[in-house]
Structure formats: structure tokens, C-alpha cells
Amino acid sequence: MAGLYFSTTTLSTAVLIPALLLLFFLLKHHNNTNNKNPNPKPPSPSGLPFIGHLHLLNPPIHRSLAHLSDLHGPILLLRFGSRSVLVVSSSSAAEECFTVNDIAFANRPRFLFGKYLGHCYATIAWAPYGPHWRNLRRISTLEVLSTHRLLSSSLLRSDEARSLVKALLRDYAGPGFQRTHLKLMFFGLAYNVIMRMIANKRYFDEDSDEGSWKAAKEFWEIIKDVGSVAGPSNTADFVPLARWLDFGAYEKRLKSLKKRRDEFVQGLIEKYRARKETGSPDGQCSPAERTMVIDLLLSMQEDDPENYSDDFIQGFIAQMLTAGIDTSSVTMEWAMSLLLNNPETLKKLRAEVDANIEQGSLMEEGDLHKLPYLQALITETLRLYPSVPLLLPHESSQDCTVGGFHVPSGTVLIVNAWKIHRDPEIWEEPDKFKPERFLSSEGKERLRTMAFGLGRRGCPGEGLAMRMVALVVGILVQCFEWKRVEEEEEEGVDLKHQGVGLTVGKATPLEVMYKPREDMAGLLFQL
């Protein structure tokens, strides 16, 4: 049972039983007082005293919730300990939550993760809806991730994609197909892209010094650890006794991760300050440095130090790193896995790339508009395997109605995007990998994924992620032949999800066989 570790031996029976009875009667009274609304409550399976439905959650959680929705309906009310949780698994209900009820669900629950790794609920992901969050959103969408800013940094991403191709060529011993792991390569590329946007610094590079390699690998471990403790089913967030006793040392782990991550990000800030002071005689930044996120934030700090403290800058950068790296690299891995299991789709994609990229040229981000099948393929990957299958949780700030059901204030909302993306009432052959479904004008208008969320709290990094993932997948197909490793040749690449975490990747890291394409040899060996 994910996140649930009960051990009552540390409490005497005389203390434990009265405390649990008190909690039970308080919950019963709360439920009775909320039954006066004329609209019915959503259906709910039978739960257990004190823990509610937590015992029904087995990893991966999105599959457990999908199973419960199959049994009880697409709008489901669960109880996680002391909290009511609305689980939505239909597209129409999700849209109702983020259109008609967008303001009502604009808040986040105050989970421990948001307290420690969301800088005390001050980052764009975890801040309560209000002026501070609106300012964060403004900075993200108009300053950091605007269309203009993304266009101006496109050569940076093309350069990193080229570096990935060079790394694969450097490791290739030939002749014939050679085995390699792609997971760390994808992480390194995404890490370099985000770090160059933030601080104009590459870490994963054959020319990097030992300190940079060590720092990059350390942050990789931090990202993996952060991902493993995120998610909407940690017992300490729902059962007060579990938090008091700190079962599983969850809160201590969050504190440790916060310390490690904050030290890393503060180090970036201090290094940049030092470089800015010593980099030029007048202390001014170069044109390239003035486009960096860290320079933008420090300039804002100079103008308004009270509102843009180091803690604010830390939180903004940490959010950008953790949100932008893991989700993109996970999607790259899913896309390549699906291509290996669907060789005809791989052939179609290669034909599109070859027909639209000039002979003797390496694909760049500016070519993506000429490659609709590639873009449809990435969208289809996100439909089948959204990197965050359960969207970040919301919380109702007022009573509202969803699907004709009464939802009281203070209810946690979980949207099961993974389940919605496989709804046979919306998607023809929902479990089949079919990029063609997004090619027609009707398909583009009618079929929408919610991999990046919906409403005002949707992910502002969608444009960056789509560009980066499409470019990487496209350039790999352009430059190399790919096939499955021998042990997966018959049954295909294993597409099982890993068990826990907010960002959910493959249970087993992707291994592939590759070799340079013969008709690309002239170009590749000039790199």
C-alpha cells in the first residue's frame, strides 16, 4: 500500500484508542453537517475507519484510481484519512472543474511537499491563488517562457540536440548495431537545456570539469528523490497521527531534500553573482547573459529587494529545474519506446523527416512546423503516457457542483489524466498508439489531451516541453537506425510504469540498439 505504514506499538492503547475514537466522531459530525445540500454527494465505495480509502491505493496510483472509477463511476468521492478527495476520470467533468469551477479549484492543498519543496507554498506550483501566484504566473508566461523568449533560445536547444547526436557517434564502435542506454542521455540533454536558459551553464558535457559532472549527477539524484516523494497519497498529509509520529520518516526526508536542493540552487546564484562582478570591467553582463533567467530575477531583485529575495529566486529556479527536466526526459523515453514497438510508425516518421529536411542538413527546432506527423506523435505519446498521470492536486475554496454532485469547500481534487486519455467514449481504439488521430483538422479541434493540466493553473512550460521533446525524437530518427534489444525482440519494449511518484516513467530504463544511417554518414562524420 503506497505511502501507508502503520505501527501502533509506539503508542499505548490508553492513548491511541481515545484519540482514534475522537477523530472518528469528529469526521462523522462533519459529514452529517454537510449532508444538508440538495445535490447528492458523488458515489463512494466503503472505507475503513480512520484511514478511509487509503488501503485501496496500490502503485501505480493512477491505475488503482482508474479501477475504482470503473467500479463506481467517473466522479468519485474518496476519503484519505481526514480529508475528502474528489477523483475525476471523465473529460467533461474535468473541463467543468477548470471552466465553470476554475476559481473554486484554483487553490492547492497544503501538503507537506509544498511546505518544504515548494518554499512554504511560495512557488508557482504550490502557491495559493492570489496576487503572489499571479505575479509568478506573469513572470513565467511573459518573461521566461513567452513565445518570443522560446524563439530566441531555439538555437540553444538545437545545439543540445546536436550534442546528443555527437555523443552517440562518439560512443559508437561499429560495425552493425550497438547497445546503449538512453535514460541518462535524455536527462543530461534536458538538464543542459534548462541550465543554459537559467545560468548559461552546461554540466553534462564531455569537456565538463570534474566538479560540473559531480554537481550534475548529484542534482540528478535530487530530482529522482524529489519525484519519489511527490504525489497525492502520502499518508502524513491525510492522517494526523501519522504525521505526528512521522511514520516512514517522510517529513524528515522532505527536510533533507529541501536542504540539498536549496544548497545547489543557492550555489548557482552565488556563482553567477561572482561572475557578474568579475566578468567585465564595468560589471555589466554580455548580451547572452542578459537573456538568462537568473539575470532577469536578480535584476528584479535590485529594483525590488523586498519582494524578490534570494528565497524567491531559489524557489523559482528550483521549480523550473524540477518541473522542466524530469517531465521532458521521461516523455522522450516513452516516445522512443513506443516507436520501437511500432516500426511502421517509425518508418512514417523517418519518411516525413527525410522529405522535409534539406539533404545534408541536420534537423533544427525551426524545422518543426514542417513536421506535423512528428508533432502528432509527441501528442499521442503524451495521451498514452502523460509524464504526470495524476495532475497536481487542487483544492476547492468554496462549495461547488461537479457533474450534478455537491462538492464541499476544502475537498482535494485529483484528475486522472491517464484514465481520461484512454476513455473509449472519446478516443477510438484508446489503447492503440495512433498519431494519425491528431492529424486531421477535426482531430486537432475535437481531441485534446490534458497532459499539461487545464485552466488557469495549467503548466506554463508546455511550449518549451513540446519543442524540446519533438526536436530530440526527430533528430534521433533522422540520424540513426533503431531497433529493440534482443531480449525484447519478440514481446516488445516493456511499457510498465514505475510504482510511485508524481512524474511516472518506465519501470525499466530504456535500452536500445542503434547505428548511424548510411545515407547520413557524410553529414554525421562532419559533426
Automatic annotation (TrEMBL):
Keyword annotations of the record: Heme, Iron, Membrane, Metal-binding, Monooxygenase, Oxidoreductase, Transmembrane, Transmembrane helix
Entry-linked Pfam families: p450
Subcellular location: Membrane
Positions that bind heme: 459
GO MF annotation terms: heme binding; iron ion binding; monooxygenase activity; oxidoreductase activity, acting on paired donors, with incorporation or reduction of molecular oxygen
Principal cellular location given in the protein's record: membrane
PROSITE patterns: CYTOCHROME_P450 (PS00086)
Membrane topology summary: Single-pass membrane protein
Matching Gene3D superfamilies: Cytochrome P450
Cofactor(s) needed for function: heme
Record-level GO cellular component terms: membrane
Xref: InterPro entries: Cyt_P450, Cyt_P450_CS, Cyt_P450_E_grp-I, Cyt_P450_sf, Plant_Cytochrome_P450_Monoox
Transmembrane portions of the chain: 6-27
Superkingdom, natural source: Eukaryota
Keyword check for Heme: yes
PANTHER family: CYTOCHROME P450 82C3-RELATED, CYTOCHROME P450, FAMILY 81, SUBFAMILY D, POLYPEPTIDE 5
Family of the protein in this entry: Belongs to the cytochrome P450 family.
Protein name per its UniProtKB record: Cytochrome P450
Source organism of this protein record: Dioscorea zingiberensis
